[in-house]
Amino acid sequence: MSKIYTHIPHPHIAERKQQAPPKVADQLPTGSAAARANAWLAVKISTGVGTMWCAYVFAVIAFISLPTTISSHNLIQIVSWVAQTFLQLVLLSIIIVGQNIQAAGADKRSQATYEDADAVLHEAISIQKHLEAQDAEIERLLALVGTPKA
Q: Are 83 and 110 in contact, with CB atoms under 8 Å apart?
């Protein structure tokens, strides 16, 4: 091996080989039983409420009270029904669905970034080996022509 340069790999390389890219699910607590139970329950509720079917059910529930609200002929009650009953109830599920889709996209981007970084790392290691081979060949050629090494 050439004495011109000694490659010292970055310590993160060994750590990275032991880890996968982070996922949204990796953010769940791993500590106490209470924290794990709360996270499990929150995920189950979010999974159930975060569906379009739940949004449809909430819309039906909201529309059940619409005739009474309209028959009151009270503009404030109608605005209140729209804001507090319909929007909050129905949009809650739709927003969760959107967040789930965005989280899945973030996981895919994270995986792609991880794979890109892994490929770049392997290319850098390959380049390092190529440079070492070139150094060895240059040193061999210098020895043949009798030029002193630097």
A: no
pLDDT on residue 101:
87
User: Which pLDDT does position 150 carry in this prediction?
Assistant: 59
Half-sphere exposure of 54 (CA within 13 A, CB side): 16
Q: Which residues contact 55 (CB under 8 A, 6 or more apart)?
A: 90, 93, 94, 97
Residues with Cβ < 8 Å from 148, sequence gap 6 or more?
142
Report yes or no: 39 and 29 within 8 Å, Cβ to Cβ: yes
Round to whole Å and give the CA distance between 141 and 136.
Answer: 9
Listed ranges 16-20, 43-47, 74-78, 139-143; the one with the highest mean pLDDT:
74-78
Going by C-alpha positions, the residue among 21, 27, 26 that lies closest to residue 111 is 21
Task: Please answer whether residues 20 and 27 qualify as being in contact, where contact means their C-beta atoms are separated by less than 8 angstroms.
Answer: no
Query: Residue 84 class from Cβ within 10 Å (0-12 exposed, 13-18 middle, 19+ buried)?
Result: exposed
